[in-house]
Design brief:
The structure is a single chain. By secondary structure, the chain is an all-alpha fold. The protein folds into two domains: 183 residues, Tetratricopeptide repeat domain (Serine Threonine Protein Phosphatase 5, Tetratricopeptide repeat); 81 residues, Alpha Horseshoe (Serine Threonine Protein Phosphatase 5, Tetratricopeptide repeat). Helix content is 68%, strand content 0%. Helix 1 packs antiparallel against helix 8 and helix 14 packs antiparallel against helix 15.
Length: 287
């Protein structure tokens, strides 16, 4: 069960697909969009996959998992070839289940995601959880280790993935050090910003302040920091690591349309690093 407990934070990204204009309209209002405004934007166009996915993400973040699943299912009506929408649906269905830790409806969604994109990290993670729940602990660890090997250094889910492997190994008396070491072989170190290109993150004071305010205000603060990072990169665009940081932050905030634009701007400013930037973006689920 350790893997299920960790599941909620294991794969920290969401992807919008389709026309983001309705979402953008909501986002331009002062402050972060509300559930009501996101729902209104989605209901304007039942086939706008992006707007329904944004609504699903907001429901998921607020713990309304059944509503999140409904929104993701509607998003799929607008784009049924998007693997991340299917894996998001699976995750929402799993979290909405009060009795079954791996409901068939969730498995079906994860398998659909894998059929569309065998690299989908969320689906791979949870299908390994299924193995763990069925008693195939070694098989689950092997699958998670394979996912770790394919995970870009610094990806939002890396720390939780490592924690899952360690905890499941500990609970079931399975040595995992060699599996983790093998997964790490050949993986580049997490990118470090050079002194000349460094873009500072939040200070200790900012972090302390964020912990003392409401979730809505925390999101507002996070958005402000990301906008500041965006502005610094536009002033100093020759910084591939900074652009990767921005894409990751946009995806974490549920702003895949802006992450996609950041990728375009990053490639335009850093053509020699285009392949790496595209590879990092794909791993983050940037559309």
């Amino acid at each position: 069960m350790a893997a299920v407990v960790l599941a909620g934070g294991a794969i920290g990204y969401r992807v919008l697909s389709g026309d983001p204009s309705e979402v953008a309209e909501v986002a331009t209002a002062e402050g972060p969009p509300t559930l009501e405004s996101l729902r209104a934007a989605a209901e304007k166009d039942p086939l706008n996959a992006g707007a329904w996915q944004e609504l699903g993400f907001a429901y998921y973040e607020s713990g309304q998992f059944e509503d999140a699943a409904k929104a993701y299912r509607q998003a799929i009506e607008g784009d049924d070839t998007n693997a991340v929408l299917w894996s998001s649906l699976g995750e929402a269905r799993l979290m909405a289940s009060e009795s079954d830790p791996m409901p068939n409806a969730a498995v079906t969604a994860f398998e659909k995601a894998i059929g569309l994109d065998p690299t989908d990290a969320r689906a791979r993670y949870f299908l390994a959880v299924k193995k763990d729940l069925e008693g195939d602990h070694q098989g689950a660890i092997n699958d998670w280790a394979a996912l770790l090997k394919d995970t870009p250094p610094g990806a939002p889910w890396e720390a939780n993935l490592r924690q899952t492997i360690v905890q499941v190994g500990k609970i079931n008396n399975i040595a995992v050090d060699s599996a983790i070491a093998k997964a790490d072989e050949g993986r580049p170190a997490a990118p470090q910003l050079t002194a000349g290109n460094a873009i500072p993150g939040p200070s200790q004071e900012q972090i302390a302040a964020a912990s003392a305010i409401s979730p809505t205000d925390q999101r507002g603060m996070a958005e402000g920091m990301v906008e500041s990072l965006d502005g610094k990169l536009r002033a100093n665009p020759n910084n591939p690591d900074g652009w990767v940081m921005l894409m990751r932050s946009r995806m974490t905030l549920g702003q895949p349309d802006k992450a996609s634009q950041a990728l375009k701007d990053a490639v335009a400013a850093n053509p020699d690093d285009a392949e790496r930037l595209k590879r990092e973006a794909a791993a983050l689920g940037v559309p």
